[in-house]
Amino acid sequence: MGLDEDALDYHRRDPPGKVAIETTKPTSTQRDLSLAYSPGVAAPCRAIADDPTDAYTYTAKGNLVGMVSNGSAVLGLGDIGAQASKPVIEGKGVLLKRFADIDVFDFELDTDDPDAIVEAVALTEPSFGGIHVEDIKAPECFEIEERLRERMDIPVYHDDQHGTAIVSGAALLNAVDLVDKDLADLEVAFAGAGASAIATAEFYVSLGVPRENVTMVDSEGIITTARADAGEINDYKARFASDRPAGDLADAMAGADVFVGLAVGGLVDPEMVRSMARDPVVFAMANPDPEIGYHEARAARDDTVIAATGRSDFPNQVNNVLCFPFMFRGALDVRAREINEEMKVAAARALAELAREDVPDAVAKAYGDDPLRYGPEYLIPKALDPRVLFEVAPAVARAAVESGVARVDLDLDTYREDLEARLGKDREMMRIVLNKAKTDPKRVALAEGTNPTTIRAAARMVEEGIAHPVLLGDRETIEGQVADLGLEFDPAIVDPTEADVLDAYADRLYDARKRKGLTRVEAADRVRTDTDYFGSVMVEAGDADALLTGLTHHYPSALRPPLQVIGTAEDADYAAGVYMLAFRNRVIFVADTTVNQDPGADELAEIGRHTADLACRFNVEPRTAFLSYSNFGSVDNAGTRKPRRAAERLRADPAVDFPVDGEMQADTAVVEDVLEGTYDFAELGEPANVLIFPNLEAGNVGYKLLQRLGGADAVGPMLVGMDDPVHVLQRGDEVKDIVNLAGVAVVDAQERDG
């Protein structure tokens, strides 16, 4: 099928459309319903009647945006009417939910009368925390937005005007940085004089471009003061009337530093680009066809041409989704009365700054694994970069507070953590650990120090202040990689071939393994050539506090050196691998998933104790269940006795102060109705959050099913039971995975020091 057929099939699948309403509170019992509606609902109603601001406390108002359109100017489709615009407006709501966790109620108004639209929208103010105006034709859209902003005491935002302005403004900030020009000196030519073009020109003025340096061209040519004086243009276009002679787009572009296209495709040819000033900036943003193609613009001349379009199949897509979800997120969270110019400028500057930072691996993978690095082909972040939420929303919130339009203030340090929690429970849990790590960063040896992903992770550790990373490997290679990656990072490097501790490390390894068949010559060779052994001895000797390895080789081979050199803790006979699985409303720790193939009862008990200790590092009070296909003796054989005895051993241990039970089936462990209804004698009290599988096969299969089919985000594997903090990465882990495990290792080291 073609794109149109695929899209129709996508939209008509049951349930039709793209949005639905879901409840956020329990509604499974009679008491739940009496709280949700009659008679309990009277209490919040009375509270809001006494204090209208309590609507933000007791209703969804503070996270609800009204999405409004009449369908008179739908991108690429024109005036298709209110009903036909509904798929577009639903889609815009989906983007607000997907990128910023904002709920949306869309309503399409079947009128072209600005008075009727203003009246209808203004009357909805009690329902919403903000209003998003979309796809209303110019010049009526200007009047509608202005009147709504004057009349309503909540943010009103017209994305067709301001979204392109803000995102292209961020691109402009970085473009002038790359070509070493000043905003105050720029000559800017605009093709198009509709809502988006006028708003973009106004925004560039807010950023620092002189108004008199802007030349705007509509279908009749350059907008001049003569045309304005003759009444040939509306008041909005007249703001950019120029004193220059009449002319066409080619005249406007001659000598210009920047071209901004918000008109129609094919207006610009290579000769017009060649007529521009040195190192020109060409933003050809007409959709679906730009005024000039990206590659045609770049090839038009020999110096640097920085180009952007509105298309996703070329670099530098000016995409409004980089703006409006995060603009509303920040505005809603401070209960702003409006979205003002200061907030828009803050959003653009935050986007520009983010583009200069190292790009997460997941973002690069989403766009084809091509390197993404600040430069002419990467001016602005990608739409799927989750960091946009954490950078833009706080910048907008801060600007709202500082400019006096916020009703509440925020602790911006904790606000970022609140935003992370919106994107997943795993982020919320990892932030707890990373914040602990920051209080006392430790030395983390990275065995694969020449690997670019490891180097980028080390730079991130330093940037976030969670660890003092030490890169192990060839010094020249590492320094070359740092330069190639463009990182502003001066890493700590230990090159085993030049280390003055090489002989001492060889002696330590020899002493540890000489009765296991290792010769002194072999020991010296291993610490010199194998950074897993070097790093293991480094930690064992106290020259580093933790070790991370395994990014480029199989788990068993990466685990072997630290097991041989560091070994298990004094109170442990076994190491084990643990994953933290984060669901929307709960976190579960599962073990063993990576190490022990067929553990006995003693091993299972020890794994349960270590996994519970790990949960405590995440501020989770453990409730441990030993899993089986049997419930509390319903089947009695060697296999079911093993987890049963493990649970008994832990319960008998006076040092264990957390609830433990088993053997039990998986649904018994995690479903409250089953646990408390059928098995009310169980020790757990509440559903388990630590699950101990009976063997490696079950553990590995189980966690992967939970991750893939259950929609859980996985953090790990985290290695427990070692004498010093060691974690073995999975092959192909990303920067964030390495940083997360480094944080866990640092917290482990802190507790050992304590």
UniProtKB/TrEMBL annotation:
**Which sequence ranges are marked TM in the entry?**
none
Q: Name one GO biological process term.
A: malate metabolic process
Name the protein family. Answer: In the N-terminal section; belongs to the malic enzymes family.
One GO MF term on file is: oxidoreductase activity, acting on the CH-OH group of donors, NAD or NADP as acceptor
Q: Which cofactor does it need?
A: Mn(2+); Mg(2+)
Domain Malic enzyme N-terminal per the UniProt entry, residue ranges? 16-149
What organism is listed for this UniProt entry? Answer: Haloplanus rallus
**Name listed for the protein in its UniProt record:** NADP-dependent malic enzyme
Which UniProt keywords are listed?
Metal-binding, Multifunctional enzyme, Oxidoreductase
